[in-house]
Amino acid sequence: MKSKEPASRPKPLALLGKRILLGVTGSIAAYKAVGLLRTLTTEGADVTVAMTQSATRFVTPLTFEVLSKQPVAIDLFAGGQEMPHLSLPERADAVLVAPATANILAKSAAGLADDLLSAMLLNTRCPLIFAPAMDGDMWDHPAVQANVEALRKRGAVVLEPEVGPLASGAVAKGRLPKETVILAALKEQLGRKLDWTGQRVLLSAGPTQEAIDPVRFISNRSSGKMGFALAEAARDRGAEVVLVSGPTALPAPPAVTVVPVETAKEMQAELLRRLPWSTVVIMAAAVADFRPKRPATDKVKKLQHDPHELELERTDDILTRLAERRTTQFLVGFAAETGPIVAQAREKLRRKGADLIVGNNVAAEGSGFGSDTNAAVLVGRQGIIADLAVMPKRQLADRILDAVLSLKEPAPGQKLGRR
Ligand code: PMT
């Protein structure tokens, strides 16, 4: 007798309950949006389609209406009281424009709103993804590339088109990205935790440089990577971020306001000025503890000075000043240590008046200055919160943000660390 096969378990639907606003624009690839809509709904998504007038010349709205089981939004003025340019993006978990023409990229980059879809894009606050499709020369044009860069800087995801045969017959980069690529980007964006929405994070990063003369300075080996990783993590979790950074070689993270500074004094002024705006302050910068007392205005000649004579003075402790002036802000400091980390972190927490200290063993392998990874002990007023082994700085940044949130807004009955 044949044994009964166990019933195969249905695959969980990856997009179950997700509300997607699918924008379709006037490209020959508009027909592929039909297949995309089918896949999205098969994966459980609730999809509303918005078409531009030009898109309706390639595919009839009826096709999308039947497949999505919802009316297709086309006309900016058709909604009466409902105002679909506001209501549809507001209720969406993600907005996907596929195919996205050069025209919609340009309109969105410039903030134009002369039809329903472009007006919707101005009202989009959830993740926004563009899947471009156009002629290869159009994609390569500096104007299109500038628009793509502007949109990415603002936090939108603009996928790269595929290379392959185009409608013109030419083989070039301009085909709509593969459905698997579009879906992966969509799922990644939907998976983002936006638990820092509403927080305003003031961060410091990098070293400071304290002038000896016009060409020489005292500084340290901070690359800025830890502070920049924190800025990106906070941004990706929905926070507004201002990053006051000493000199680094890192590119400015998109959708983060970067305030470049050179000296400890400049860093202090910029941070204190922005303190009232912030809800959380994180001092990841390696601020110089000393600076030359009298920097020379002209380059110091080799033989002019005794090499042992460089009079230094202490810089102000920025973290302490921030703690003195804060009102409701949550204050995080770092402690770069080569000795007993927890004891030093506790001491700095108390002396500097922070709420959390990230004790950073800067002598350990793969940890501290310059590396892409870091290890840390998180010490709060309650004691050790987490002892974290070496991991990528971006991952550590997320763990630090998790700890800050749990201390700022502890879950009911949550125990915070041990003494
Ligand atoms: O930039 P990376 O290459 O990625 O390296 C990361 C890092 C090692 C620089 C970072 O993880 C780190 O440990 N930053 C703090 C470095 C430091 O200056 O530590 P500290 O123990 O000397 O200072 C303690 C705290 O006081 C820090 O938050 C520091 O920003 C702050 N401080 C220090 C001196 C000063 N004059 N004003 C301050 O506010």
| Bound small-molecule species | ligand PMT
Strand content: 15-25%
Q: What's the gyration radius in Å?
A: 27 Å
Mean pLDDT: 91
Structural class: alpha/beta
Q: Report the major sheet.
A: 8 strands, mixed
Number of helices: 13
Low-confidence stretches: 1-6, 415-419
Described by the principal axes of the CA atoms, the overall outline is elongated
Biggest sheet strand line-up = 12-11-8-13-16-17-18-19
Helix content: 25-40%
Distance between the termini: 64 Å
Number of strands: 19
Features:
419 residues, alpha/beta, disordered N terminus, disordered C terminus, binds ligand PMT
Describe this structure in words.
Helices cover 32% and strands 24% of the residues. An 8-stranded mixed β-sheet has the order 12-11-8-13-16-17-18-19, sandwiched between helices. Strands 2-1-3-4-5 form a 5-stranded parallel β-sheet, with helices on both faces. The longest helix has 16 residues, at 393-408. The chain is α/β, with parallel strands linked by helices. Bound molecules: ligand PMT.
Short description:
The chain has helices at residues 30-42, 61-68, 84-91, 102-110, 116-122, 136-140, 142-153, 179-190, 225-236, 264-274, 318-325, 341-352, 393-408; strands at residues 19-24, 46-51, 94-100, 128-132, 157-158, 162-165, 171-175, 200-205, 210-213, 216-218, 240-245, 257-260, 280-283, 290-292, 312-314, 330-337, 356-361, 373-380, 383-392. It is an alpha/beta fold and 419 residues long. The strands form five sheets. Strands 12-11-8-13-16-17-18-19 form an eight-stranded mixed β-sheet, sandwiched between helices. It has a five-stranded parallel β-sheet with strand order 2-1-3-4-5, sandwiched between helices.
